[in-house]
Amino acid sequence: MSGTSADGIDAVLAEVRGSGPAIRARLLAWVHRPFQKKLRRRVLAACFRGSTAEVCELNFLLGGHFARAALAVMRKAGCPPGRIAVIGSHGQTIHHLPGGRPPSTLQVGEPAVIAERTGIPTIADFRVADMAAGGQGAPLVPFADWVLLRDGTRPRIVQNLGGIANLTFLPPGAGLESVTAFDTGPGNLLLDGAVRELSGGRRAMDRDGRMAARGRVSEGLLRELLRHPFLRRRPPKTTGREAFGEAYLQEVLRAARKLRLDGPDLLATLTEYTAVTIAEACHRFVFPRLAPVGKRLLQMIVGGGGARNPSLLARLRFHLAGVEILTHADFGIPDQAKEALAFALLARETLHGRPSNVPSATGARHPVVLGKLIAVPDSSPHHDPRSF
């Protein structure tokens, strides 16, 4: 998995058993392989300004990087490639246009390169089948949230704080058809972009939310940010850099300069913006589905890079007073491993020909089998045709 922030690749090795409501997954190992600054700049530039030739080359270049990440996590676990049934690769999103004419999406990181260099069947390009069926191609992680984190008696919100923030609502004892999920707005995307601008590219993030903790929220800028039209849309909905990327960041920076905000005040405001948009999404689209007793039992399980930002978590706790806020680590899942684990689960379902999108989350007309399989010949040095 390489997310919206394009800071590197997260890879996991997982053992998966069962199917349907009985499916179970065990995380065996995970690694994070950061992109070098030059590669990260190349990826981000391709998202908006890349020529056809640049995107074409990046597709194969990233395929090699994903293959090395897969092999690295196998080495860490001491697991030979011959024991691996399948690799699931989300790839790197270059553009995601659920509102386009027609709706479309593009992830790169050529799976044929991954399969060739590992000798392992590889499934990739997960989003397109859902979009072909009228969905938005996202979010796809709700299937994994349902597998890993549903509870028989407690309602739960699984809140991802990656570049884009998204939530999954799991009613108590939820069947997959009752799961709700959608993007709430920006997560770390604007925060990280502002830090890069303020530091002249020397820093990539507000580590531990320290700068934001020194600043004061600009109510004027916050009111302006909260007017973004995406925030008023009802689910299902998904977004990305196209709405909250570089162009929007430059608008925010110009507004901040007009208000003469310093760096800490800007970051405090953007941190508040992320927390408020999540809280408002909960109040509008989740809380009405809870009985009074359900709200008292509600837990929010936070993951992604933002789960390591104490300033952001503090503001979430303030705006969602009474909700118990935990992290994926409290459930034995490293924050950076969660989304890669999700695509391992999706790949395993696809290998068995089982649908794993959640139409109530994506808006698809019906369940679909996700992804495209690159098979390898039985003569591959690593291929083991044993059943899975």
Written description of the protein model:
Residues 383-388 have low confidence and may be disordered. This protein has helices at residues 37-49, 52-77, 111-118, 127-132, 142-149, 189-198, 210-214, 219-225, 241-244, 246-258, 263-286, 292-297, 310-319, 338-351, 359-362, and strands at 8-17, 24-34, 87-89, 92-97, 104-108, 122-124, 156-161, 164-170, 180-186, 299-303, 324-327, 372-374. The protein has a five-stranded mixed sheet with strand order 9-8-7-10-11, with helices on both faces. A three-stranded mixed sheet has the order 3-6-12, with helices on both faces. Strands 1-2 form a two-stranded antiparallel sheet. 41% of the residues lie in helices and 18% in strands. A hairpin with a 6-residue loop joins strand 1 (8-17) and strand 2. It is globular. It contains 15 helices and twelve strands. The longest helix is centred in the first third of the chain and has 26 residues, at 52-77. By secondary structure, the chain is an alpha/beta fold. The protein folds into two domains: 8-141 and 338-374, 2-Layer Sandwich (Nucleotidyltransferase, domain 5), CATH 3.30.420; 143-335, Nucleotidyltransferase, domain 5 (2-Layer Sandwich), CATH 3.30.420. Helix 5 (142-149) packs across helix 14 (338-351) and helix 11 packs across helix 13.
What labels describe this entry?
Nucleotidyltransferase, domain 5, alpha/beta, 15 helices, five-stranded mixed β-sheet, disordered C terminus, 388 residues, single chain, 18% strand
